[in-house]
Structure formats: C-alpha cells, structure tokens
Structure of ABC transporter permease:
Amino acid sequence: MTVFIIRRLFQLIPVLIGVTILVFLMMHATPGNPAQLMAGENAPPETVELIEERLGLNDPLPVQYFDYVTGVIQGDLGTSMRYNTPVIDEVAPRFLVTIELAVYATILSIFLGLIAGIISAVRQYSVADVSIMIIALFGLSMPNFWLGLMLMQYFAVNLGWFPPTGWGSPGQVILPVITLGTAGAAIIARMTRSSMLEVISQDYIRTARAKGVKERIIVYKHALKNALIPVVTVIGLQFGALLAGAVLTEEVFAINGLGRLLVDSINNRDFPVVQACILIISVVFVVVNLLVDISYKFLNKRIDLND
C-alpha cells in the first residue's frame, strides 16, 4: 500500500506540470491585455507599458513560466493582477466554499443514487425500476443551471421557502446542493443498478438464496459490497465533475466560491488567479482518484494495488 501511494504521488508531478503548461499557454493565447484592463480603456500607452513591465508581461513566455513554477514550488501562487493581493488570500476562502458545496452534493448523490440503484436492481422491470430509470434519465438530461433557475423560481420566489442566493445558512445550502447533486445521483443510480444486476446473477448469490439466507442480507452484505467497486470509481470521477459544475451553480446562486472567482478572473485576464484555481482543482481531482484507488483494497482484499 505504501509503495503504491508513493508511486502515485510521483505520477502526480508530470500531470500537474502538464496542467500548468496548458493553462499558462491558453491564458496567454487569449485575446486581451491584462495591463490594458488594469489601466483602463483610455489609458496612454506609456501607462500600459509601465504596468506590463511591473507585472513581467514583457518577459519571454519561458521566463514567465519558470518564474511562476518557481513560486509555486516555494508556496507562492503569485499576486492577483486585479486585486493586487496575494493569490492565496483570494483563493483560500472561496476554495473552502466550493469544496463544501461539492462535498454536500456528493453526499446527496451517493445517498440518492445508491438507494435508487439498489431498489431498481432488486425489483428489475417493475414499475419502481422503470420509474427510477426515467427519473434518472431526466436528471442526466437537465443542465444544472436550468434546474437551479427552476428551483429558485419555484421554491425561493414563488413559495419563499429558501433564500434565492448566497451561501452559509442551512436554507441557502439546500437549493445549490440539489442543483449540483442531481446529475451525479442519476449517474450513480444507473451504475449501481447495472453493477448490482451483474453481481446478483452470480452463482454464489444463487447458492446463498438456495441455503435460505435472508434477501436483505444477500443484497446488503454480499451483493452490494462486491458491486461497489465500479460505483466508487464513478463517485470519484463525479467529484471532479462537481468541482467543474460548481462554476455554473455558483453563478446561478451568487455563491462566492472558487468557480465564480475563476470566471471573473478569466474575464479580467487575471493570469495568476486563473492558474492557481485550475491547479488547485487538478490537485484535488488527482488526490480524490488516489483515495478511490486505495478504497478498492478495502472493498476487495484480493485486489493488488501494486500490479
């Protein structure tokens, strides 16, 4: 296990280097001059040139990239071009908000998805099975920003049950979490159903039934544990998707999170903040997938992670 974790951590290095290079090149290929945005549309060229010199934008791209990577290694993500404050001060509080939103949405997705998938698999081709799969199809088909707007209109504006925007109080959490977690719940439900049906058809399940083992024990003790490996994989991938989907959810509900900061920074050509946001999301995504791989060993002792 230790060897596997160390090897995966070393594999993280080239992935993050590739991410930083791609983001760096994409941001510099984007039309617009951040120095011009900072100086104003009517600023004289001399002012723009001074800002470019101060920010190091006149340096060759390899020099700028080397300076950025050197700072990251030292724990310095740079200074925001827009706010003129350390990037970490802008990113850290918003990152916590986005992680909180993604964790809550993941918990909701797992809870609803597992229950729906198990019921659907155990009662295959029944009315419950067909109904759950139709609902799951709708959950997959609805864009989360549209679902968010509909929930806001009905439950916040028409009924007044929840605050329409913001984050922090229990009432402000419910609608964004439902919006972000619905698609994930649908995917987990479909995967759970498929995996459970495959396991239920195995010989050892039929043997357990022939021995008179209670159906509840067969489903939850024998079938579900062996069906969880592909489901856990999907959950890990979904967490990364939720971090990306949080961008639209935060915009709809005016949540001051990392996704909203990322969109604002792209619009303002705030290169250091954009690079920091994507780097942090990439690190979280890779770490979550590492935890998913480690969980395989606990779900199935026969799996050798070092293979």
